[in-house]
DNA sequence: CTGAAAGCGCTTACAG
DNA sequence: CTGAAAGCGCTTACAG
């Protein structure tokens, strides 16, 4: 049925008729083929402009076998991870060519299947799959007809192409920063240990301490949950047992916010008495903390850009099996900078 | 060129050949037309299954004149508003039929134009435009060939279809809640007054107070910015001038968090001494506050559902000029519940 | 330089 | 019940 707002979209036939040429010539004129007389091209362009002609990408895609469309499949319901990745991917693909469409599977594998089918049915040229956590995930089932790049959360199949943040190195960087400030009574308070993100960051943090011939205060990493309330209760009991703590590496900015709050209440000055590093560099939390929070940034836009580059290359026939890691950067604010 | 991962997608022709029928019959069998013998249908189904045939939506769309695709154009870079709206829209369109693709214009009208062109070129059946703030926005330029629904942020053209949250009523609801708790020394601390959201909520709040023959403490609404730090400084100076404040309506959960923090520091018990209501019901902030924060919820999923319904109806030829308002709901937590 | 024709993958009257 | 044919809107060899 006809759309409410109007007139059926103009077609190349309309343009050709108005310009008084065949559709073949109109097509060539519009696509910059050079077997067209300048004046003819001009007439066609004017006609197209006048009718605000916009070529039907469906027809084009049908012919070309590629649609200039990429699907980004996410399960990140808050969009905290996937939107920056989407932006990075869009940037990498650039304006002129490829469009990225985002679908949300909400962590439901049935819905994921549905979206994959819908996207493939619409003949996207490739797929970027963004996980909601950094743990490796099963690859999309079935033999897919287009290349796939896994971002943020790698595929379990090491023949697939994956791009992730280097959480181990980030843990090391965070602790090295505290060490460089002269801190030596350092604790690592992190989130749910069932998350690879928690374990990886802890691994890096522990390695950095070990390299400095130190062990974490309390002799272990303190796993819990990704929440402010865990940050509060963890730091409270740690301070009671180890009043000499002088550095905290928190597994997330939420945890760090809880830590900062309790440090304030206990009268510990940050960063003078205790320096604090968070993780995620989530602006809403980090810049509004007292003091403002130093945090590790996963560089998600860059991750998205890289995912797009790898996908583009794969669409051209390239192969990139394995996991590529993107470095995280340290964003220094008041909580470690005085 | 051929995609790296493989074989060109199977076509109806492949299926028909394997089943030993014509493509016309294969098509009818697959689409449940009833002019097909049961055993033939069965053979075709098996063949399609075996080749994991997925019909080319481009070809279908070309024929049908509609693609079963809707574009959701957002400018909300954090996704806090647009992702819930996306989910609501997906739900409303249901599984079987329409897919929603999200594009991010990042508040840049050039990029918005680009995305609109890309979406229309791909022949979406309709467009949902989601703003980043509640202020009315200029309509998409040009005569579009598909219906458009504006969500969250209405179109300035009252002939367009818009769905928004009822911020005025929400302001009233929040204050009525405080009044019902017996509070009478109420302040409203809100965000940037250049935002319609701030002004609308303030209008509702003021009306509710007036209806109770009260004026806000300090005789005015306290506008500032959408941040915790503004919440902190605003409540601090208000408490100094008006120590008898017993209720706070904050224009956002971020502001409310700042308010709660200072109330704690000043030794005011919440909700016993001062009851606090926030706005947005942003789980990360509201559930981790001390005490947990009562907040107004804009029901964005419902807003998305309604936008999808209106768009669907418009695609069928219906018209719905004007602005439809979705009610916000009060989510009661400890900060007003004792 | 220009246009008639074939074809991308599908659906739908229309004959048989 | 089945299939040959036309056609959706476009592009691209191929003749002229």
From TrEMBL, chains A, B:
Keyword Zinc-finger: no
CDD domains linked to this entry: HTH_LacI, PBP1_sucrose_transcription_regulator
Keywords tagged on the record: DNA-binding, Transcription, Transcription regulation
GO molecular function annotations of the record: DNA-binding transcription factor activity; transcription cis-regulatory region binding
Pfam families xrefs: LacI, Peripla_BP_3
This protein's record includes keyword Iron: no
SUPFAM superfamilies (UniProt xref): lambda repressor-like DNA-binding domains (SSF47413), Periplasmic binding protein-like I (SSF53822)
Domain HTH lacI-type: 10-64
UniProt protein name: LacI family DNA-binding transcriptional regulator
Species this protein is from: Nakamurella flavida
